[in-house]
Design a protein that fits this description.
The complex is a heterodimer of chains A (about 250) and B (about 475). Chain A is α/β, with parallel strands linked by helices. Chain A has helices at about 40-50, 70-75, 95-110, 115-130, 150-160, 180-190, 205-210, 230-240, 240-250, and strands at about 1-10, 15-25, 30-35, 55-60, 65, 80-85, 90-95, 140, 165-170, 195-200, 215-220, 225-230. The longest helix of chain A is centred in the middle third of the chain and has 15 residues, at about 95-110. Chain B has one domain (about 5-475). The chains are: A alpha/beta (about 250), B alpha/beta (about 475). Bound molecules: adenosine-5'-triphosphate and magnesium ion.
Chain lengths: ~250, ~475
């Protein structure tokens, strides 16, 4: 589904991703872990098409299509979703209005009419229930004054609304309290199917107890230095990253 | 393909001004230039009574002694007042005609502008008094309004039919001596609207006027007078677009509002005159004097969405004369390319317990300059006056400017004046966030701008708010931050 080959990316002439290889098949869950500053969010941004980062080598393709020339919004239309580590605020634009615009823009790109208001409402109702979001919350300005946890839950609400093919969750667990973590993880699990894939970026094993990964990768200094099954996450939790860093430098 | 800023810029350059077309209507136009004879000729053309002719001549003499003001933060080539023709009327105009008799070309123009003068407006409860160039072509719903005793007609008709009201109120809020453009307007105004709401009457529909500029090189000098008698209410909408032109067109309107005791006037404007091309050529010069007078317990709200004009000089103001009166000013001013806007308000607190609110949203893009200029004045006798001002600026790109000039003059110690100001930029992160959700950059900007302007858009009547939102999008197309 998503294929990343020897991906190099830099910002302001500083190379951050230094040759990433990753294949994510439909139905799979991949976890990406790794120390601060190792390039996890950068990888997520590059997959989503952020132009700030220059891809100097390698490729990202979705269902066989090279994404190099594909604008971020078109990637979204094709089913790429990024739950941001730091969601931005858009004052004066309600969550509902934002979602309505996002959905209708995607539909427009596919040559479809706007979603009828009735269906939109139904969808909003259904997905807000899934994530146990109070609907009053949805008329607030997007992310403005949201608590850290609220922002993250709202990201997953958007994911639920948009039903992407590949969802990248960048530290969605950070900032969530124990109950919220369970709710959000359950939401993600419910959205998972054999036709889509999830990449979770996290620092903690805890999330992976809920969203169980098929593969765990460790990113260090712009490269995937180790891959394994879910037991790798437990090992990291126990031992930290030092042993991996050492292995990598050998 | 990735859609870049450059692509957007190209698109904007090739994009014709949406409403920029020129309708070929035969006009009866005066020779260029201004002198006492021209003023007399205008008055004669309109069959005006002597007192009106004298009033105009007096204004003309005052104007002759005045200098064009220089204090605004705008730069432009001064209009040559002798190169303007001061009267132009569509030949076939006749106020007694029905819409069926109206020049089909005119109707086509309205259609292009998306203005329906027909059943649709009736359904939407909007009465329309259309001004093409200088003479009213059609007045609708007069009858419905007349049943309530509401007078809504071209000011030229009001001068004939209700001289006592015109004589009593015209020039009382904006005197002939007020400023250069107001004096000029007083001398040469050719049309505009007149509205009178009798005591205790709530006007059942939104009154609306559309102004156009249609004849090359013709200035427009409308005069609007709205009087809300005691305990009455009226909501008045004004909107305009103009055909695109090469040379600058001068527009100097005067709007006077009078809210008598316990009355309320809402005056909303959506303005979209040709702003000039991307090099800053052409475009309308818009020098407007708008002012309202509030008597006891009355309220005047100005709401404006300004997206057009090359140069805008406009300060809708309130004189809060009566105790407990309320003045409000809600404004969105958008400038793009080389547009310059110097706009704001004056709230003059004379009465006790008077309150005013100012919400100004300035959006600048391209190489434009957007200035807010506001004066809050509290007179020594205005006990417990209160003002709240909020001026927010949104910048797109690095070549535009936003300026705020708030002036406060408080002569009474009990005054409470609050001023808040913010400046923000549309961030790349905000745009990327929208992009990531499938919203392209153009639409993302529209969304962010609408969010920024929401407090003001919410003050507009429904049908106008939709139109205004569209205008914001059109005027900012291609201006990526
Ligand atoms: N726009 C930028 N300009 C300069 N350096 C950048 C930029 N974006 C990222 N970097 C650098 O790239 C490196 C990788 O950053 P990234 O955000 O991808 O790390 P991360 O693995 O997500 O870390 P964390 O676990 O703290 O979220 C860091 O050293 C960061 O400072
Ligand atoms: Mg990160």
């Amino acid at each position: 589904m998503l294929e990343i080959k020897d991906l190099h990316a830099s910002v302001e002439d500083k190379e951050i991703l230094k040759g990433i290889n990753l294949e994510v098949k439909a139905g799979e869950v991949h976890a990406i872990m790794g120390p601060n500053g190792s390039g996890k969010s950068t990888l997520a941004s590059v997959i989503a098409g952020k132009e700030e980062f220059e891809v100097t080598k390698g490729s990202v393709s979705l269902e066989g299509e090279d994404l190099e020339e594909v604008a971020p919004e078109e990637r979204a239309h094709k089913g790429v979703f990024l739950s941001f580590q730091y969601p931005v605020e858009i004052p004066g634009v309600s969550v509902t209005n934002f979602m309505k615009t996002a959905i209708n823009e995607s539909r427009k790109a596919k040559g479809l009419e706007d979603m009828p208001a009735k269906d939109m409402l139904k969808l909003i109702r259904e997905k807000s229930e899934l994530l146990e979001i109070d609907r009053k919350f949805l008329s607030r300005s997007l992310n403005e004054g949201f608590s850290g946890g609220e922002k993250k839950r709202n990201e997953i609400f958007q994911m639920a609304m948009l039903e992407p093919k590949v969802a990248i969750l960048d530290e969605t667990d950070s900032g969530l309290d124990i109950d919220a973590l369970r709710i959000v993880a359950n939401g993600v699990n419910k959205l998972k199917s054999k036709d889509n894939a999830v990449i979770v970026i996290t620092h903690y094993q805890r999330l992976l107890d809920y969203i169980v990964p098929d593969f765990v990768h460790v990113l260090h200094n712009g490269k995937i230095v180790k891959s394994g099954g879910k037991e790798l996450a437990m090992e990291l939790e126990e031992k930290g990253y030092d042993w991996i860093k050492q292995e990598a430098t050998v | 393909m990735a859609y870049t800023e450059d692509d957007l810029k190209k698109e904007l350059e090739t994009q014709e001004y949406e409403y920029g077309f020129y309708t070929n209507i035969e006009s009866d136009t005066f020779p260029k230039g201004l002198n006492e004879d021209i003023v007399r000729a205008i008055s004669k053309k309109k069959n005006e009574p002597d007192w009106m002719t004298e009033w105009r001549l007096d204004a003309y003499r005052i104007w002759e002694q005045m200098e064009e003001p220089e204090w605004a933060n705008v730069r432009y080539e001064k209009p040559d007042f002798q190169a303007i023709s001061y009267y132009s009327a569509p030949k076939q105009a006749d106020p007694n005609k029905s819409m069926d008799d109206v020049d089909p070309e005119l109707l086509e123009m309205y259609r292009k502008l998306g203005i329906s003068v027909d059943e649709q407006k009736r359904l939407q409860n909007v009465a329309v008094d259309i001004v093409v160039d200088s003479v009213s072509v059609a007045t609708t719903f007069k009858k419905t309004l007349a049943e309530k005793g509401i007078i809504f007609m071209p000011i030229s008709e009001a001068i004939q039919e209700h001289p006592e009201l015109v004589k009593k109120y015209m020039g009382t809020v904006v005197p002939k001596t007020d400023n250069f453009y107001a004096a000029l307007n007083s001398a040469v105004f050719t049309d505009g609207s007149f509205c009178y709401i009798p005591k205790g009457v709530k006007c059942p529909m939104e009154l609306s006027t559309y102004f156009r500029i249609n004849e090359g090189g013709t200035g427009q000098f409308e005069r609007t007078l709205v009087i809300a008698d005691e305990s009455s209410y009226v909501s008045y909408l004004e909107g305009c677009t103009a055909p695109s032109r090469d040379e600058n067109q001068l527009h100097a309107a005067v709007v006077e509002l009078i809210a008598l005791d316990d009355a309320e006037i809402k005056y909303s404007t959506v303005q979209n005159w040709f702003p000039g091309n991307k090099e800053g050529q052409g475009g309308v010069y818009n020098f407007v004097t708008k002012r309202g007078l509030c008597e006891k317990n009355s309220k005047i709200s100005w709401t404006q969405v300004e997206t057009g004009s090359a140069v805008t000089w406009k300060y809708p103001s309130c004189i809060l004369k009566g105790d407990n009166s309320v003045g409000e000013f809600y404004s969105i001013a958008v400038t793009n390319n080389y547009q310059q806007a110097d706009t704001g308000t004056k709230m003059v607190h004379l009465g006790k317990n008077t309150r005013s609110t100012i919400i100004s949203k300035g959006i600048s893009a391209g190489k434009s300059q957007n200035s807010y200029r506001g004066l809050v004045q509290v007179n020594s006798r205005a006990e417990n006056a209160r003002n709240f001002s909020q001026c927010d600026s949104l910048l797109m790109g690095n070549e535009c400017g936003a300026h705020t000039f708030p002036y406060i003059e408080a002569k009474n110690k009990s005054a409470q004046i609050e001023h808040e100001a913010t400046t923000s930029k549309i961030g790349e992160d905000q745009i990327f966030y929208c992009n990531q959700r499938g919203i392209d950059t153009e639409k993302a900007i529209a969304l962010i701008v609408n969010g920024f302007s929401k407090e003001v858009l919410n003050k507009l009547p429904m049908e106008f708010a939709v139109e205004a939102q569209k205008l914001l999008e059109i005027s900012l197309e291609g201006s990526v931050g």
